[in-house]
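step: validate -> pass
step: tokenize input -> pass
step: predict -> running
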Amino acid sequence: MSSRATPIQGARPVTPPLHSAGSPGSHISPLSSGALRPPACRHRDRSPSPMRGYLIPSPLPTRRNRTCSATARASEGPMFTGVCKCFSRSKGHGFITPSDGGNDIFVHISDVEGEYVPVEGDEVSYKLCSIPPKLEKVQAVEVTITHLKAGSKHETWAGIVVSS
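step: predict -> pass
step: emit ->
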């Protein structure tokens, strides 16, 4: 009997079984449970979030992952004012138009202080923090709503809608 696999007429070719380098006679099927486990050295504790495998890590520094030195530099900086251009609670970010003109400034949901979710037209005060890696762009931090836009509905972080 030959050790080579021969294809059967009209069927798919049969490949010979795989052997590990350590033991020439052993065979682990790709469908066996041992083949599907990750190596033991790669075990890490993970967050219990069900969306963990779908979320891409954000390169933007949020309050949770900002360094202490960047937080201190931002806290020492001057306070600016502007108007909320847009803010999406579901996306977790928005933009502020500065009162003194210039480019719109990014704001992350973790940097909004206070009771209400900002909406278009709200007047806000904020400080600036540089965005890595090149530190050329900035984002708003310590954002507080100073004046709610009159005649618009505002939502609290708890989900209660209030008309102003």
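step: describe -> The first helix runs from residue 33 to 36.
step: cleanup -> pass
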